[in-house]
Specification:
CATH class: Alpha Beta
Low-confidence stretches: none
Number of helices: 5
Helix content: 10-25%
Radius of gyration: 16 Å
CATH topology: SMI1/KNR4-like
CATH superfamily: SMI1/KNR4-like
CATH architecture: 3-Layer(aba) Sandwich
Order of helices and strands: HEEEHHEEHEEEH
């Protein structure tokens, strides 16, 4: 699972590896010394996956586990979509980038019975909307960040959602990483 998506991300160009094993794909010097089209975090250690599983309990859907076993999250197309992972520390060291933490966006909603079975798994840089994964069914739904209103019909799984969104956003970028149209 997810290997085809990661291969697509890596195919965009040269990779550099940060000190903590993070892959930075296709350097974009026109946007800054540290600007890359994609940032892919290495797989999560089993003990950290278990820590996540304990945090979310019975709503830690198997698709989240499968995702974290191959990557601890990623930012694609310069933050157009950020998929959360496990944040080891809160440092903002540019040489040791970290993903947004799956647990952080979940906290404000943990007491809301409407979302007690859902886990926020990704966010969009353009409008702040969030992809929510239903911890029971595995269905993924994009919701408005402020109103929590659904934004479309959703997807039957996390892998399908991430692949579909990668393909949708990729259509707006040239092979050199230049944005051709708004996403």
């Amino acid at each position: 699972m997810y290997s085809h998506l990661l291969a697509n991300l890596r195919a965009w160009g040269c990779n550099s590896i940060a000190k903590n094993g993070v892959e930075e794909v296709l350097h974009l010097p026109q946007h800054g010394d540290r600007a890359y089209l994609h940032t892919i975090f290495p797989p999560l250690e089993p003990e950290n996956i278990e820590e996540m599983a304990n945090y979310f309990g019975e709503y830690f859907h198997p698709s989240i586990r499968a995702f974290l076993e191959v990557t601890n999250g990623f930012d694609i197309f310069r933050g157009r979509l950020s998929v959360f992972g496990f944040q080891h520390n809160l440092d903002r060291d540019p040489d040791r980038p970290e993903p947004f933490d799956l647990r952080s966006p979940a906290r404000p909603y943990s007491d809301n019975s409407k979302f007690r079975f859902s886990v926020p798994v990704a966010s969009y840089g353009s409008d702040g909307s969030i992809l929510w994964l239903d911890g029971i069914s595995g269905h993924v739904l994009r919701r408005n960040r402020k109103t929590l209103a659904p934004m479309g019909p959703g997807w039957p799984s996390l892998e399908i959602a991430l692949t579909a969104e990668y393909e949708r956003i990729a259509a707006h970028f040239g092979s050199d990483g230049t944005q051709l149209s708004s996403c």
